[in-house]
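Hi team,

Filling in the usual template for the complex we talked about on Friday. All components are listed, including any nucleic acid strands or ligand strings, so the model treats them as one assembly.

SUBMITTER: L.P.
PURPOSE: interface mapping
COMPONENTS: two
RESIDUES: 1358
SEQUENCES:
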Amino acid sequence: MSQDPLVVFTPSGRRGHFPIGTPVLQAARALGVDIDSTCGGRGLCGRCQVSLAEGEFAKHGVHSCAANLSPRSETELAWEKTHGAKLDGRRLSCSTTIRGDVVIDVPADSQVHRQVVRKGAELGDIALDPAVRLYYVEVQEPDMHLPSSDLRRLKEALDFEWRLTDLQADIRVVQQLQGALRRGDWKVTVAVHEAERIIAVWPGLHEKVYGMAVDVGSTTIAAHLCDLQTGAVIASAGRMNPQIRFGEDLMSRVSYVMMNPGGDGEMTREVRTALNALAAELAAEAGIAVAEIVEATFVGNPVMHHLLFGINPVELGGAPFALATDEAVTGLWATEIDLHIHPNARIYALPCIAGHVGADTAGAILSETPYLTDAMTLIVDIGTNAEIVLGNRQRLLAASSPTGPAFEGAQISCGQRAAPGAIERVRIDRETLEPRFKVIGCELWSDEPGFAEATAATGITGICGSGIIEVLAEMFLAGIIDQDGVIDGALAARTARVKASGRTFTYSLFESAERSLHITQNDVRAIQLAKAALYAGVRLLMDKLGLERIDRIRLAGAFGSHIDVKYAMILGLIPDCALEHVASVGNAAGAGACIALLNRGRRGEIEAAVRRIDKIETAVEASFQQYFVEAMAIPHKCDPFPNLRAVVALPEAVAKDRAGSGRSRRGRRERTPIEGVTT
Amino acid sequence: MSQDPLVVFTPSGRRGHFPIGTPVLQAARALGVDIDSTCGGRGLCGRCQVSLAEGEFAKHGVHSCAANLSPRSETELAWEKTHGAKLDGRRLSCSTTIRGDVVIDVPADSQVHRQVVRKGAELGDIALDPAVRLYYVEVQEPDMHLPSSDLRRLKEALDFEWRLTDLQADIRVVQQLQGALRRGDWKVTVAVHEAERIIAVWPGLHEKVYGMAVDVGSTTIAAHLCDLQTGAVIASAGRMNPQIRFGEDLMSRVSYVMMNPGGDGEMTREVRTALNALAAELAAEAGIAVAEIVEATFVGNPVMHHLLFGINPVELGGAPFALATDEAVTGLWATEIDLHIHPNARIYALPCIAGHVGADTAGAILSETPYLTDAMTLIVDIGTNAEIVLGNRQRLLAASSPTGPAFEGAQISCGQRAAPGAIERVRIDRETLEPRFKVIGCELWSDEPGFAEATAATGITGICGSGIIEVLAEMFLAGIIDQDGVIDGALAARTARVKASGRTFTYSLFESAERSLHITQNDVRAIQLAKAALYAGVRLLMDKLGLERIDRIRLAGAFGSHIDVKYAMILGLIPDCALEHVASVGNAAGAGACIALLNRGRRGEIEAAVRRIDKIETAVEASFQQYFVEAMAIPHKCDPFPNLRAVVALPEAVAKDRAGSGRSRRGRRERTPIEGVTT
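RESULT (copied from the run log):
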């Protein structure tokens, strides 16, 4: 044994002695070194590439040199020719044998469970371990002397070559199997789901397998197409949710169902039609066939989730807001939801959490993993409702706050969706009370040269959600509105922008021949109601955990991505927190769908986390109402916000008022901190 | 404890002490006594009826009297009123409490796993344990203080009340669940498949649940509708397999697929359409809705099986005759095969055994259970091919012999299907050589008075399979044909019934103005070929097991049911065996489908048995050809048939010829008996 050459694999450091002539791949497998292969070591797939590390490795007592590996083989030359690619000094470990001591490096892209390093912040690094994997096998031909079915021999081959035991097979696979085996000359590639079930079969070596991750939002459906062999996102697309014609927001869609029997079926058909269009678009963009998509994962709020799966959502429209199911949907045939990808493709949907807290929130939790950290983490996803998750590895709470659609611009006199021409940034001069602003689609501030020309095409059409937050926060900092949100009519004497309108006043943000954009007292009230609801929900969860401080805040979703967190804190949307620990995380729900697509282990992770979550229904919590009232003030009356004070000069009245604020102190006395919770 | 009353249950003999006031059902459960209940002890379903055994039970030291049970309860009176039935002295064990020592008898029809005693020989007694069972539960209403989904609360109730843990639910059930719970005022009945999966839900108490067992034959599709609560067959129906328009026999249907791409799809659609018509017919006959059928089990030969499941059967049309799958089909949604029963109903199909030996043979094996006995058992199912199963609990062999369609009358000049007007019984006078016969649809022999009038309506149209066997055997016994099957032309001098026809002779069975029915030399040859193939297959399997004698023979299928086993043995279709151990068992395949429907444990039993079977392909066995040649003779040249000689006077030539026959002795010397095999 010690006479045999020593083979050391890096980076794992695993080592062992193997007889001369042993293929490198075989040595790796014997040592449990993680090297990928679809073709089972036949030199076809090229996934098992390794590099020779040359030189003296004193630590291992190895002199590793090219002469200690077999020379380039016919198989390797053939692979290069077939794939039109060069191995560039790498070797196919299946076709390279050991002749002496060597150190073999397994590059990241040859590891089965490689880390997929994702661009951008939305998706952290993911260990690639998709639910659907491909396996190439050579199947014994039928033999009249040993009668046995094609399926049995396929399963025997999968057991022998890949140690996949006790596999089941879809009847749909059985329907295709005999043709595939004979067209492939008894060599086929199968797709196996969850190491349990054969869901597809192709003749010969089939190397392409894709999945789609979908976030079904009330307004937008967003989807990513992923290569399940590499983890790469190879196409992304989004489109309006066609259900919008039944109602802009969730409640109006549920109302539509209540008023129109069968309306749920209509909406289910609409969303599924849109999904098929999206799948076709993604496939076309990536240059693949839709039938090569073998899995789809979904997130969505409870109403979208239920409509997608053909569940009538009316129960979600009124108390007690009972979900039909709070389990993950697993292993469903895509055809069962009329999705035209591979006909045997599987569907996975993350679990919904509670009647107002959906699989989208589960996706955000999976993406942000508060359940893995000691840091007390707040995740807020603001839409028509705000989903709130608070906690850490010890305990996790979730709730929904009824913010209403004000943050989406719906109840604001000059509000609009985020689109070119919408004001998104605002500053107000503390002395002159003159505003300047930026609009979507133009990099210039409104007081910079060229602004008028640059915005001529779009015009200035309204204020989007982030613009509303900024203009109100700036009005507050400039003293135009006070803590109670009242526009100070006395300022009409100082500036023409403050004008009377009936018994209240307005602040003029922009006026032109075509359009004038005012902030009215009602606009201020609408935002106050929305932000008070959001804050009260957060405060309620903090109370449940006995917290006075939150360690980090993650703002998810489109609105959360665009607002300036500082202004959100000034206006009191979110609790006081060190600004460097507040971040927008984009579409965290969609990121969660991608993670579930690329790593099956993390499905179990989020399912377990969701089961553990304490679901809080704000409507039945008396303290929610109290906090709501206190949070109407700007920023609010629940906290002395030390972090905010450190970065922003708040109006003097706030400073005085907060010092003796009793609510939070009372709260602190009433509750004992939970063990292990960072306070 | 010993102060508490003693409760003894019969027939189980289980006994225990329980406090006064304990419901009888609760006591039974505590002792593991098998009492049925769908409603969970709420006095709704009436399935838990028991009887008080009154008197002195010295063995138990119990004086059991009516006073020791609570008086008839309101619940029992209400049950009688609701069901329009009387309990007739029985008690609902859920609503009856213990007041003193009692002996309680649990009648068979109140036991969960009761034996279903079947009429007729086809279906033995079956322990009722269907895969789909009903459970009635009361589900907690949703509570905003403890948000939880309706599915979760349903599962909690099933766990709490029925100890059903880790159930999964079809998405289709989730779609129905919220409506059912609310319509049923939070009381629902669910159907659970294999104690694993909720497949249906109904509001309130639902007590009706049915299954259908189907034998998909090439010619006829036969189905039984069973009440899964009682095991009773409540309707039966059959219809022609509409695939017949693509070809009478299996091979012509496979040829059709080979010649017509898409032909398999056509035939799949045809058989599924017929199944839907059958299901509707069964439901109408039983007065139930098709949607109350929650499971269907199937048997069929390999080609029928594959076409039913949408698998192209061309591979079964040529060597090496590879099945796509030899596994049972389990848990498939009925909709996946376009079967319009309950949309979530499940499909179970018994496994096919080999390319020529199908799930129908598996059904016959399940019905006859040779794998449970020491007796060396031969099962023969004769159709276009003859499926042969031979063995006992030690070892089981299966093969198919290519008999061709002669037994079905296809290659016989005056042959026809079994139908009114067909000759089915024949006797030939040994002296006069005059025949007499019976036709289907008439109880009289042809030489009895009134026969002509009784058959006037149908006429006498041909000979069916059993008639062919009898006429040839009688011709042999009367010396009209010799051991080699040659019609003796010399007899033309004795009787006008023997006539020359070219270079051979014919025997006239019936002549009238409209029709004359002759047995030609070609007819004899066709039957000789068919019976030689059948016998050679049996002999081959006997050789494999080292057998000279078979303990019992079971003739399955329509042909097997109608032939007189004595004539079959005279003609040499089956090997020599004590006549009292030879029996026709009717549609044993269909019986197997019923058994699988009514008892889920027996599914595992047949699946295991089929895996253990040695599959023999006659085409590759050299000795098959040898036996085939020897078996062309009548009865055959392989055996001295002692049992047959004991009951029938064989022509003298046979007696001489067989004494020194070497074949079988050689066979005996060559093989050593298998341990434990009865020879």
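MY TAKE: The CA atoms of residues 302 and 386 of chain B lie 13 Å apart. The radius of gyration of chain B is 30 Å.

Thanks, L.
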